Amino acid sequence: MREIKFRAWDTKGRRIDPSGMFDFIDGKLEPLFEDSVLEQFTGMKDVNGVEIYEGDIVKVLDGEDVEDPYYAYLEIRYSQGKFYFHNAYAVTFDDVLDVDVLDVEIIGNIHEQPELLEDK
């Protein structure tokens, strides 16, 4: 069973706070401050052992050509009960988050570095 954890993005303070700026209210997990966005832990870690959350931007080797590698820059999203990779072209990569350690690297998050998802 994977660990259920969240972090909160404080839109006013423009920072990520893993300390728990949320609570259960009327049976729902809600941010304590209206200017917060909750992001769920995927249960996975990147190649550096860093926990991967919704909203993280990751760098993924796309293809198998080691001599001429092409990297895709993708956002981690959660929808319809599953986590998935998403890029600017709305391409999703289902069932890729099913291993303990992914061959991906977190390079930022959608809040602080959205430009990382721009056409590369």
Structural descriptors:
120 residues, mainly beta, four-stranded antiparallel sheet, SH3 type barrels, 11 strands, five-stranded antiparallel sheet
Beta-strand proportion: over 45%
Order of helices and strands: EEEEEEEEEEE
Query: Given the structure, what is the number of helices?
Result: 0
Helix share, percent:
under 10%
- CATH topology annotation: SH3 type barrels
In the predicted model, the low-confidence regions spanning at least 5 consecutive residues are 97-101
Q: How many separate domains make up the residues?
A: 1
Shape: globular
Q: Tell me about the biggest sheet?
A: 5 strands, antiparallel
Compute the gyration radius: what is it? 15 Å
CATH superfamily, called what? Answer: YopX-like domains
Distance between the termini: 37 Å
- Mean pLDDT across all residues, rounded? 75
How are the SSEs placed, and which strands pair?
Blueprint: E1 6-10, E2 15-17, E3 22-25, E4 28-31, E5 36-45, E6 51-53, E7 56-61, E8 71-79, E9 82-86, E10 92-93, E11 104-109
Antiparallel strand pairs: 1-2, 1-5, 3-4, 5-6, 7-8, 7-11, 8-9, 9-10
Walk me through this protein's architecture.
The chain has 120 residues and is an all-beta fold. The chain has a single domain, classed as YopX-like domains (SH3 type barrels), CATH 2.30.30.290. The chain is 0% helix and 48% strand. It has no helices and eleven strands. The protein has strands at residues 6-10, 15-17, 22-25, 28-31, 36-45, 51-53, 56-61, 71-79, 82-86, 92-93, 104-109. The strands form three sheets. It has a five-stranded antiparallel β-sheet, with no helix packed on it. Strand 9 and strand 10 form a beta hairpin. The protein is globular, with a radius of gyration of 15 Å. The N and C termini lie far apart (37 Å). 18% of the residues are buried. The model is unreliable at 97-101 (pLDDT under 50).
